[in-house]
Design goal:
membrane; DUF2306_membrane; transmembrane helix; mainly alpha; transmembrane; DUF2306 domain-containing protein; 68% helix
């Protein structure tokens, strides 16, 4: 065939070149922070961005009982401050907020690849700090769960479950990294961080639920009279709205039924949020439990790559079961024995 007689290939138009150029810019953008896949950068931007935004929006809550409108005292659910202002609950909320907000800020940087690859010492120190802060925050959460958003049974059970899941996941991640089982360290740390992110999804579900229940039907909850009284500046107004509450020896006694509704009365707002909190926690927890497992199932190549790295490092250290020195299904369960890449050739 005469090549010279074949029709000349038309030159690419500017519109055809544009996607290639924009794709190159996009690749340079996520590669600059160490990501090798664009979808990982997008997921990081969404979830890490949500965590960072939530933490920055709540930093003012570190001013636990200040007079400023941005403090936790004035930003918490109506009625909660009555319990948190003194005693063991004040210690608990201080420990929880003082630890979990810094932990949330620091954990974002643990998932930036360039820090893990180029600044390993910073990654390790930051990891130890996060572990310590999360444990302190979990202790504080257990101290206050009896009064958090009404302290219902489902709320207490949800808090205990979340504390158990995060603590267990972090401990397993810590054990695996000490055994140089990097693939399992990645998996368990991702689970721990996803579980901790439940509180963000929880807030969204809780507010939506509170708004819906305020409009579609009549929902009610019970609240202690003394908690409601703390929300009123006038004893006369409180007595007029809740004559069922008894005043004995200068203290308010008993419980009353409060309508759960987003309205002008703060106790109704508090009842609405408290009524939705337990349900929102369990629903958010299920979403995060399933979501992280789906992500791990869809990224087996990264897990396999890290297991190969684990094998090589464990071989250098003389481990008895290189590639399976940590908590792996072939070492602790009945899975087929894992073989390194060089053994499969």
């Amino acid at each position: 065939m005469d090549i010279s007689s074949s029709p000349a290939r038309p030159a690419r138009s500017d519109t055809e070149k544009a996607p290639s150029k924009s794709r190159h810019i996009w690749q340079r953008l996520y590669a600059a922070v160490g990501f090798s896949k664009g979808y990982n950068f997008i997921l990081f931007f969404i979830f890490a961005g949500a965590m960072m935004g939530f933490v920055l929006a709540r930093l003012s809550y570190l001013n636990i009982g200040g007079a400023a409108s941005s403090s936790f005292k004035n930003g918490s659910s109506p009625g909660e401050w009555y319990w948190y202002k003194t005693g063991v609950y004040r210690i608990g909320i201080t420990l929880h907020l003082g630890a979990i907000l810094p932990a949330g800020f620091l954990m974002v940087w643990q998932f930036v690849p360039i820090i893990r690859h180029k600044a390993i010492l910073i990654h390790r120190i930051n990891g130890y700090a996060i572990v310590l802060l999360v444990f302190i925050a979990n202790a504080g959460a257990l101290m206050i769960c009896r009064r958090s958003f009404g302290g219902t049974i489902e709320t207490q059970a949800g808090v205990v479950t979340l504390v158990f899941l995060t603590t267990t996941s972090i401990c397993l991640a810590f054990y695996n990294i000490k055994r140089l089982q990097i693939d399992q360290h990645r998996a368990w740390m991702l689970r721990a961080m996803f579980y901790l992110g439940t509180i963000i999804t929880l807030r969204i579900i809780m507010i939506i639920s509170a708004l819906i229940t305020s409009q579609v039907s009549n929902y009610y909850s019970t609240m202690p009279c003394d908690e409601i009284a703390s929300l009123y500046d006038s004893n006369a107004a409180f007595s007029a709205n809740y004559p069922q509450c008894n005043t004995r020896n200068g203290t308010v006694d008993g419980r009353v039924v409060v309508k759960a509704k987003f309205g002008s009365q703060p106790e109704q707002i508090g009842a609405s949020l408290g009524l939705s909190f337990g349900m929102a926690m369990w629903l958010a927890l299920i979403l995060h439990l399933v979501g992280v497992e789906i992500y791990l199932a869809l990224t087996p190549r990264e897990g396999n790559r890290l297991r190969q790295v684990s094998y090589e490092r464990q071989m250098e250290q003389g481990y008895e079961h290189p590639g399976s020195a940590g908590i792996t299904s072939d070492h602790w369960g009945d899975a087929d024995e894992w073989k390194p890449v060089e053994s499969l050739k």
